[in-house]
């Protein structure tokens, strides 16, 4: 979370930096890539750490391309739709 190159930090240091942000109420709503950029790690490191934490919210806050803050319901992302088959 500082300006030093990530190569100088151990994997445990990187993991602690990611966990610190993911445990913060405001930062947990940010995208994996943005958290990775701030911590100086790859987004591939953030995603499994985030998924290992218990998610208690179904909303994500993000900034639109116009600069406004918006909220997205993410409860159904990754879930399959139920298909109803009608037999005539």
Architecture blueprint of SSEs:
Blueprint: H1 11-22, H2 32-39, H3 43-52, E1 59-63, E2 69-73
Antiparallel strand pairs: 1-2
Would you mind describing this structure in some detail?
The chain is α+β, with helices and mostly antiparallel strands and 88 residues long. The protein contains three helices and two strands, in the order αααββ. The protein has one domain. Strands 1-2 form a two-stranded antiparallel ribbon. Strand 1 and strand 2 form a beta hairpin. The mean pLDDT is 84.
Please provide the count of β strands.
2
Percentage of residues assigned to helices: 25-40%
- Average pLDDT confidence is 84
* Unreliable residue runs: none
Structural class: alpha+beta
Helix and strand pattern? HHHEE
Shape: elongated
Instruction: Report how far apart the termini are.
Output: 62 Å
Alpha-carbon Rg, integer: 17 Å
Order of neighbouring strands in the sheet with most strands: 1-2
How many helices does DSSP assign?
3
**Major sheet: size, sense and barrel closure?**
2 strands, antiparallel
User: What is the domain tally?
Assistant: 1
User: Strand portion, in percent?
Assistant: 5-15%
Keywords:
88 residues; 2 strands; single chain; 3 helices; two-stranded antiparallel ribbon; elongated; alpha+beta
């Amino acid at each position: 979370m500082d300006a030093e190159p990530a190569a100088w930090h151990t994997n445990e240091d990187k993991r602690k930096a990611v966990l610190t942000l993911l445990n913060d109420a405001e930062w947990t709503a940010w995208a994996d890539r943005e958290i990775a950029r701030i911590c100086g790690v790859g987004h591939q490191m953030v995603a499994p750490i985030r998924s290992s934490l218990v998610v208690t919210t179904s909303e994500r806050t993000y900034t639109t391309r116009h600069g406004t803050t918006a909220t997205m319901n993410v409860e159904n992302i990754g879930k399959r739709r139920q298909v109803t088959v009608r037999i005539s």
